[in-house]
C-alpha cells in the first residue's frame, strides 16, 4: 500500500498522471477493439443485413455499460476518497457491495432481456429483414450481462486502489479471447451473428474471471468477501448518488441510440449499417479520452479526500492539455483516412459512401471532446452528485435527443449526421461551467 500512497501523494504530477492514465487508456483501447470486433468480422461476410443487425444491438451493450458504470464510478469515487481519508476497512465494504450488486443487477437484466425480447427488438428499430438476425444475436448476448457489468465495475475499482496495470489486464484478457474466437465462429464455423454473440459471452466470462481470481489470491487491499458486504453506513446511498448520474449518461445513450436507429430505419438498412460502422470506428477517440478521464479520477478523488486541492488542480490542468493534443492527432488521422477506415469494416460501396460522410461529421468535435470527460470525472471524483446528474442528463438527453428531432425535421439524413458533434460542443461548455462553479466553493480552488 505504501507504493500506492506514493503514487497518489508524492510522485510528480506528470508521472502520476502517466502511471494512472496510460493503463486506463490502453484498457479503453482494448474496449474499442472489443466493441468493433463483432462488427468487423461480421462485415467480412459481406452481408449488409448482418452488419445492420449487429449495429442495431448497440443500445443493449450501452444498457449493460450503464449498469457497470453505476457501480464502477460510484464505487471508485467513494473508495478513492475513503483511502485518501485513511478509512481502509470502509473501502473494503464498498468494494464488496459493488461486487455482489454487479452480479445481482446483471442477472436481473439477463432475465429481463429474455422475457422482453420481442418488445426490445421492435424498440431498437429492427426491420423485417434484420429482426431475425438481431434476435439471434441478442439471445446469446443477454447471457453476458453479469460478466460485462462485473468486468466494467472492477476494471475501475482495482484502479482506485492504485493498481492500474492489474485493472488493465482483465479487460485485455477478455478482449483477446473475443478477438481470437470471432473469426473462428463467424467465418470458419459459418455461425454469422450468432458466432459473434457466443464469442462475446466467452470473452466477458474470461474478463470477469480474472478479477475474481485477482481478489481470491489476496493481492488487493479491497475485498469481494461476503462478510464485508454492507449496504448501510451510507455505502448504498453514496455509491448510487455518484453512480446514477454517471450511468444515466449511458442509459440516455441507449435511449438516444434507439431514437437514432428508428430515424435511420426510415432512410433504409444501408444508412443504419453506415451509421453503425462510423460510430464504431469513431468510438476510439471517445474511449481513449474517456480512459484518460477515468485514469485520473482516483488521483483526483484521493487528493480531494486528503484535502490536497493544489495537487488535484495540477492533475486536472495537465490532463486537459493531454486530452486536446491526443484528440487533435486522432482527428487528423481519422479525417484523412476516412475511406480506408470505413472500408476496413465492409466492402460495400453504398455503406462506404455514407460511412465516410458520417465519420467525418463525428470527427468535428474530436479535438476537444476529451475536455468533457476530464471535467465529468473531476466532478464525480469530488462526489458532486447534482452537477454530475445535470451533466449526464444534458448530453444524451436534453441536448442530443431534441437535436435529433429538430435536425431530422429540417435537414433530413444530413441533419441527423451532425446532431452528435453539435451535442458534444454544447456538452463541453456545460461541463466547464459546472466544474468552475463547483471548484470556486472549495477552500483552495481546484483550478
Rough outline = globular
What is the N-to-C order of secondary-structure elements (H for helix, E for strand)? HHHHHHHHHHHHHHHHHH
* SS elements, strand count: 0
How far apart lie the N and C ends?
A: 29 Å
Strand content: under 5%
- How would you classify the helix and strand content by structural class? mainly alpha
Query: Over all CA atoms, what is the radius of gyration?
Result: 21 Å
Poorly predicted runs of 5 or more residues: none
Helix percent reads over 70%
Largest sheet properties: none
Count of DSSP helices? 18
> What is the residue-averaged pLDDT?
82
If you had to describe this structure to a student in words, what would you say it looks like?
The model has no long low-confidence stretch (mean pLDDT 82). The protein is globular. The protein has helices at residues 2-9, 13-43, 48-56, 58-84, 88-115, 117-123, 131-141, 145-160, 164-188, 192-216, 235-265, 269-305, 309-336, 338-345, 349-362, 369-381, 385-417, 419-439. The protein contains 18 helices and no strands. The two termini are 29 Å apart. The longest helix has 37 residues, at 269-305. Helix 9 packs antiparallel against helix 10 (192-216). The protein is an all-alpha fold. Helix content is 83%, strand content 0%.
Amino acid at each position: 500500500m505504501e507504493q500506492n500512497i506514493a503514487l497518489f501523494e508524492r510522485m510528480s504530477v506528470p508521472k502520476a498522471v502517466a502511471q494512472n492514465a496510460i493503463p486506463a487508456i490502453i484498457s479503453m483501447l482494448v474496449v474499442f477493439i472489443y466493441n468493433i470486433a463483432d462488427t468487423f468480422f461480421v462485415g467480412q461476410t459481406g452481408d449488409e443485413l448482418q452488419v445492420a443487425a449487429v449495429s442495431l444491438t448497440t443500445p443493449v451493450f450501452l444498457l449493460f455499460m450503464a449498469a457497470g458504470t453505476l457501480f464502477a464510478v460510484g464505487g471508485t469515487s467513494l473508495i478513492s476518497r475513503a483511502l485518501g481519508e485513511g478509512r481502509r476497512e470502509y473501502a473494503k465494504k464498498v468494494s464488496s457491495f459493488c461486487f455482489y450488486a454487479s452480479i445481482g443487477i446483471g442477472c436481473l437484466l439477463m432475465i429481463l432481456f429474455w422475457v422482453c425480447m420481442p418488445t426490445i427488438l421492435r424498440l431498437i428499430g429492427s426491420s423485417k429483414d434484420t429482426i431475425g438476425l438481431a434476435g439471434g444475436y441478442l439471445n446469446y448476448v443477454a447471457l453476458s450481462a453479469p460478466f460485462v457489468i462485473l468486468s466494467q465495475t472492477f476494471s475501475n475499482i482495482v484502479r482506485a486502489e492504485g493498481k492500474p496495470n492489474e485493472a488493465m489486464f482483465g479487460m485485455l484478457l477478455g478482449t483477446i479471447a473475443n478477438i481470437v474466437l470471432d473469426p473462428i465462429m463467424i467465418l470458419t464455423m459459418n455461425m454469422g451473428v450468432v458466432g459473434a454473440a457466443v464469442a462475446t459471452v466467452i470473452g466477458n466470462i474470461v474478463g470477469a474471471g480474472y478479477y475474481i481470481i485477482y481478489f481470491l489470491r489476496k493481492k488487493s487491499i479491497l475485498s469481494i468477501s461476503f462478510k464485508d458486504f454492507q449496504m448501510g453506513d451510507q455505502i448504498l446511498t453514496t455509491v448510487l448518488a455518484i453512480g446514477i448520474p454517471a450511468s444515466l449518461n449511458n442509459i440516455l445513450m441507449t435511449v438516444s441510440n434507439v431514437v437514432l436507429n428508428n430515424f435511420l430505419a426510415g432512410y433504409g438498412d444501408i444508412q443504419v449499417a453506415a451509421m453503425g460502422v462510423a460510430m464504431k470506428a469513431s468510438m476510439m477517440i471517445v474511449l481513449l479520452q474517456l480512459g484518460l478521464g477515468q485514469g485520473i479520477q482516483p488521483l483526483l478523488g484521493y487528493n480531494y479526500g486528503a484535502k490536497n486541492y493544489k495537487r488535484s488542480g495540477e492533475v486536472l490542468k495537465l490532463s486537459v492539455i493531454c486530452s486536446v493534443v491526443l484528440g487533435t492527432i486522432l482527428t487528423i488521422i481519422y479525417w484523412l483516412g476516412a475511406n480506408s477506415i470505413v472500408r476496413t469494416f465492409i466492402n460495400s460501396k453504398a455503406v462506404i459512401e455514407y460511412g465516410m460522410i458520417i465519420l467525418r461529421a463525428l470527427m468535428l468535435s474530436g479535438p476537444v471532446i476529451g475536455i468533457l470527460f476530464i471535467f465529468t470525472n473531476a466532478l464525480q471524483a469530488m462526489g458532486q452528485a447534482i452537477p454530475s446528474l445535470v451533466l449526464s442528463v444534458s448530453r444524451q438527453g436534453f441536448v442530443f435527443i431534441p437535436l435529433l428531432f429538430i435536425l431530422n425535421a429540417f435537414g433530413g439524413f444530413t441533419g441527423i449526421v451532425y446532431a452528435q458533434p453539435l451535442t458534444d460542443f454544447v456538452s463541453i461548455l456545460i461541463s466547464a461551467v459546472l466544474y468552475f462553479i463547483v471548484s470556486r466553493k472549495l477552500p483552495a480552488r481546484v483550478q
